[in-house]
Amino acid sequence: MARFRTWVGIAVAGALSLSLAGCSSTGGKRAEDARKAAAAQGKAAVNTPRWTFAMITHSGDGDTFWDIVQSGAEQAAVKDNINFLYSHDDEAQQQAQLVDAAVDKKVDGIIVTLAKPDAMKAAVARARKAGIPVITVNSGSAESKEFGALTHIGQDETIAGEAVGEQLNERKRKKAVCVLHEQGNVGHEQRCDGVEKTFDGTVQRLYVNGTSMPDVQSAIEAKLQTDKSIDAVVTLGAPYADTAVKARQGANSDAEIDTFDLNAKVAAGLKDGTLGFAVDQQPYLQGYQAVDLLWLYKYNADVLGGGRPVLTGPQIITKDQADALADFTKRGTR
Amino acid sequence: MSATTDAKPSAERDERILRTSPLRKLLGRPELGSVVGALAVFVFFALAADSFLRASSLSTVLYAASTIGIMAVPVALLMIGGEFDLSAGVMVTTSALVSSMFSYQMTANVWVGVGVSLLVTLAIGAFNGFMLTRTRLPSFIITLGTFLMLTGMNLGFTKLIDGTVSTKTIADMEGFPSAREVFASTFTVGGVAIKITIVWWLALVAVASWILLRTRAGNWIFAVGGNKDAARAVGVPVNKTKIGLYMGVAFGAWVAGQHLLFSYDVVQSGEGVGNELTYIIAAVIGGCLITGGYGSAIGSAVGALLFGMTSKGIVFAEWNPDWFKFFLGAMLLLATLLNAWVRKRAEATK
């Protein structure tokens, strides 16, 4: 035991001395702090009662997209003097139970996603019966009204896919691969369906294991090696676009890489031309608007959309816009 | 049963020092079944997919195999030692996250983060081994606990420190280019691009084989996996061996994690879940018994290769991807059955 402690001591001492000795003069936290110095901190802009809103999504653990939605909702909550509660579960049944829990807690408003609408129907109905206003975001534009939600804020996945198809036509592409990183995700299929609908060339689907980046890379690489005539790769999530770029290098292909969603790396890739375009559904806006609209409803009985979904996308982002968005992606709001 | 007369055990001679023919010896090797399976899959895809046999395609397959294989080697050793590790998949992500976030937050040279990550990852491995030997709970429970804790910590710490669920880029920091050379570079041999992970993989297989077959520690590993109490009775340091094996897995996770970090330079904190099963499957196909005491490092490499060939072969062959998982499962099952059958035959003719 004594020897064990000695070893731990040596390890800690070694780590500390190493970190003191080897500093990087470029990048890192210090560079970020310098960037952040000018950023403003939000505070409540209204003095309405402190209502509690709950947001329950179908996000899995550690999803970059939902992280941005959440940060939008949180910043709107600060501004609107809202006590904001966030929870998520990618199993529909668990998500419905979380909604039930929020109803039991008698929150003042609920924001919910309808990725698997049937499973959520009863929970949303229960909320409405308890007199809690509900806003649906992201997925479920078709069911939102039927379920009794005030409004829906999000992107229609098929329309977003169609926008990608049109963009590919404009760029004179002939053969595209749609890379799905979650087998069985309805939204992902709809996106690829949309691409297929408007794209004049052929679309092939490639399913990859989204939890393992090396697997994603080698699968795309294999696909590009098999068929040299592929001239476009469309990834369905921002983190996969960069991996597709690596795969393109490995396969010696000159296919264009395009992607759904945005992050700092995608913005940088668009800027230096390694990526063609990105189609953004503005996740920050989905979170921010949902909280803000619930507040407006409580405060002023305002409803937006006139019974139709409020669309936050698709917004096509190319090299021209990427520059302006780069800083926003770095702080995690785009 | 035996065909040759000199192989028949006699009353005076110990059956352990029995001489066997080279063919018998070959049939008794743990990896034989998987080699036959791998050859079958190779021939199958060579016929089914035109592009499979191209040098560049084979290098893609090898890359896919190497990222699994780097972990399958220490996992196989651990399984020979009679335990397994469910935390191996997320530990890879943990190791990448630690290097990235330490370097970034301290604005330190990237190599400092790499070093700290090695210490942290080895500590997690030691924790697994220490908990196992101290509490005598099954490794399933211990490593399941570690798996869940690491999954939560990966997300929790990343969110706490970085504010988002993925790390910030460290590509512009000092030490990054040289670290990338070591963990994620590509070099060309005869016009074919070879990823450095393949070198790491082969080196690990070589070292692990040497440990298993030529050192005292190797005998200990087989002994603790075969019969722990008997091993302890003859003076094998059972606890030390098991802790060492878990630290071996941690070392593999460190190498795989650094590769992840330096090839993509941003790490998603939710990654790695489910990969632990891939490593175990590769080791099992490669001839490791789930009950311990039997297996080889080379076998795990063949298992990883089989996994790489199957998952990428389906893409090369352009089959309907809806059936991908089914096909993968069927392949694995077949390979393992073939493996078990060959081993049974080999043992029956001993």
From TrEMBL, chain A:
Its main location: other. GO terms for cellular component: outer membrane-bounded periplasmic space. Belongs to the bacterial solute-binding protein 2 family. This is Sugar ABC transporter substrate-binding protein. PANTHER family: ABC TRANSPORTER PERIPLASMIC-BINDING PROTEIN YPHF (PTHR30036:SF7), D-XYLOSE-BINDING PERIPLASMIC PROTEIN (PTHR30036). The keyword Plastid does not apply. Keywords: Signal. The lineage of its organism: Bacteria, Bacillati, Actinomycetota, Actinomycetes, Kitasatosporales.
From TrEMBL, chain B:
It comes from the Bacteria. Part of the binding-protein-dependent transport system for D-xylose. Probably responsible for the translocation of the substrate across the membrane. It is a multi-pass membrane protein. GO terms for cellular component: plasma membrane. InterPro entries: ABC_transp_permease. It comes from Streptomyces cyaneogriseus subsp. noncyanogenus. It holds the Pfam family BPD_transp_2. Keywords: Cell inner membrane, Cell membrane, Membrane, Sugar transport, Transmembrane, Transmembrane helix, Transport. GO terms for molecular function: transmembrane transporter activity. It is found in: Cell membrane. The keyword Ribosomal protein does not apply. Its main location: membrane. The keyword ATP-binding does not apply. CDD domains: TM_PBP1_transp_AraH_like. The chain crosses the membrane at residues 32-49, 61-80, 111-131, 137-161, 182-212, 279-303, 323-342. This is Xylose transport system permease protein XylH.
